[in-house]
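Input record (one chain):
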Amino acid sequence: MIGNAIGTIVYMLPTETRRVTLINLQRVFPELSAEQTKKLARESIKETIKTGLELGHMWCRSIDHVLRMIVSVDGMEHVEKAQASGKGIIYASPHLGSWEALGLYVSTLGPLTTLYKPPKIKGLNALVAGSRAKAGAELVATDRQGVVRLNKALLQGGATGILPDQQPKNEGGVFAPLFGIQAYTMTLVPKLASRTGSQVIFAYAERLSGGRGYHVVFEPADDGIYEADSASATAAMNRSVERCIRALPSQYQWSYKRYRKRPDDEIERFY
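The corresponding structure, as predicted from the sequence alone:
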């Protein structure tokens, strides 16, 4: 496959992607041997390349075509239970597997409102926005008005999708452990759950080998995510993120500088 070939080349060259991936894996999985770390890094980079190559395919094909690529689903009972309660649903999806396929799939499960930031390449905006809206999702701006609209949708029993492992801007997070390392983490998910009474469900779409499609997994968040204390709730969210990643480590985007921002008392740079 093209993704495997390009990923292998990216891994073999002295790229920033390779450097960051190896640093993250060495720190997160210190128990792995050097060879095991390199193997996991190579597989992760291949999968990350595949994610990028798939985007155009996802954006241009019909929603029915994308849905046919979802060949199996685990944990749908958690979604059905949340829907039956009449409460909102927050789908928390780390940078794991094909989050674009997952987003299109959950758009078909009920009313979905998501925060949307147009891509830097202006010519792609119509394509990307059109793709994400073709299954019925409502896209709102990543500003105060957008968050207000998101709150309203959740209070009305709708759903949203958020990438919980994305490092927030300076005033939007707290430090919480992730794989035993302090990571600056968004508080948006637990805050939305608290304000709206929504249920948080973690989800990811595993990419099956040989182009066979995707296997979607839904699982409830760690109960601690509903605690009133922001630090405790955020730590619980990271435990759920970690649980998902441990289930499928080769398909996580380890090239992302997740630990870029460090606590004030930490002098050494992570990267």
